[in-house]
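W.,

You were right to be curious about this one. When I first looked at the sequence I had no strong expectations either way, so I just let the prediction run and decided to look at it fresh. Below is the sequence, 122 residues in total, followed by the output.
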Amino acid sequence: MEQLAKGLAEERARSPERLAVERAMASRPKPLGWQHQRSLTVEDFAAALNQLGLSKAAAARYFGISIRSVDRMAEGKAKIPTAIALLIFSLIYHHERPVVPKRHRKGEPGIVHKDSIDIPPS
């Protein structure tokens, strides 16, 4: 009871403007979770890749984009797409490690290159 009285006395001692700001801040909705964060800064992108244990090349294979695109995102020359930002936030939030496809070179089994397909003439 004594703490309640002390809290009320402190509240009365504050200016009305300060009280209005504090009440407005307290009534604002809190962020709901990782789904509502839809953008990444360059620094956050680099930190996220580091936290997930991904190199730029591995990130490119995992996201299904070119290494150059990842380089441009990491340098701040290209915007990080919302889908990639949400995927990164989801992986970090759920403590998941991405399963990155292995790199295949031209002519190795597991990937078909347009140069290696024999199309009979019509």
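Here's what jumped out at me. The first helix runs from residue 2 to 13. And, maybe more interesting for your project: The chain has a mean pLDDT of 79.

Coffee later to discuss?

I.
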